[in-house]
Here is the input.
Amino acid sequence: MARTQGSHSDITGPRVREAALWLFARQGYAAVSMRQIAAEVGVQAGALYNYTPDKQTLLFDLMRAHLEDLLAAWDAAAPDASARDTLEAFTRFHIRFNTSRADAVFVSYMELRSLEPANFAVIEGLRRDYETRLETILRQGLAEGVFAVSEPRIAAMALIAMLTGVNTWFRAGGRLSLAQVEALYWDMVRKAVAV
Amino acid sequence: MARTQGSHSDITGPRVREAALWLFARQGYAAVSMRQIAAEVGVQAGALYNYTPDKQTLLFDLMRAHLEDLLAAWDAAAPDASARDTLEAFTRFHIRFNTSRADAVFVSYMELRSLEPANFAVIEGLRRDYETRLETILRQGLAEGVFAVSEPRIAAMALIAMLTGVNTWFRAGGRLSLAQVEALYWDMVRKAVAV
DNA sequence: GTCTATATTACGATAGAC
DNA sequence: GTCTATCGTAATATAGAC
Here is the structure.
């Protein structure tokens, strides 16, 4: 069945979000205009309002989708294993997932201050959920007696900050492969929490 | 000698930079208007142009001053000691300095993308200089045989990312004192690079 | 050095034709 | 669903009086 002439909603919607994510990552939410997003997609500015009620909701939806994807991907990948093996899996998962979605990671961290209070609370909650996943692994290792960290929550935030830092310098096709980067960081993580 | 009536340049200049830093940290460079900065200082927008040629230069000057301060402060504080002791000094210095200037740290990292190319190159050079300070300490420890890191440059970036992450959660007057936070992070840094 | 006033440009969002 | 046109607002930066 041919669609109505001029109807592209099922393809234009994703392209709007894609263009917005790309532009927000490079220029920042406040510096990007709806006209720029529209130009990137190849429509006029007014047409964007068929896909989002406003600019703020467009940002919020991008950030929420990213963090929900992150949590779902880890929950699907997390092994049922010892704390040591689970921490290695988390380390490698975090690096792989975040380097494969650099724009979404960047926007979800840098644009927290661009969110209205109600939206900020939702995003902040998802971020805390992810931190708690790692904190739980560290507490498991403490119980097993294989880790030594005096403040699991703070250690979790410190490790996540270190791992997310990969995105500031890693480029696919560079001197180091992703597997090598994972090994380098796992070595530091492993030792940092060691007894 | 009384100054000319209405002349406050020696005090207004610093207040403009102070207000701009505060607003840029909270709302982002692109989201802050010159009118807002002027209102914060208590002057009209036009008066700001006695202190900066334009908004971009105001941002650039703030970032450059912060990074030059950071480098000068470390160079003045760095001990002439073993790699292990110098790394501990660096860890504690970085946490103390960065938590005491949270707005400048935040702006200098988040607004890199708001800089024009020529300004970006200057700031990026200063940032690399700082990373090299830590990289040099790590190489010294490798030569002494007291550290084990296979990629000193990457380890330096990883450690700086971890340490700077303190700023995302630390608040003076909270449950942990700065000395306790320094000790927590030094424990992780020490182990992460250990043989 | 600061003010008022303004030139110029751009913004987010909406209305209504097709 | 997309377009053209536009409303109402706000931006950076400058000119000239005091």
In short: Residues 6, 33-35, 45-46, 49, 54-55 of chain A lie near DNA strand C (CB under 10 Å from a C1'). The domain at 1-52 of chain A is CATH 1.10.10.60 (Arc Repressor Mutant, subunit A). The interface with chain B takes residues 26-31, 110, 113-114, 149-151, 154-155, 157-162, 164-166, 168-169, 176, 181, 184-185, 187-189, 191-194 of chain A (CB under 8 Å). Residues 30 and 137 of chain A are 37 Å apart (CA to CA).
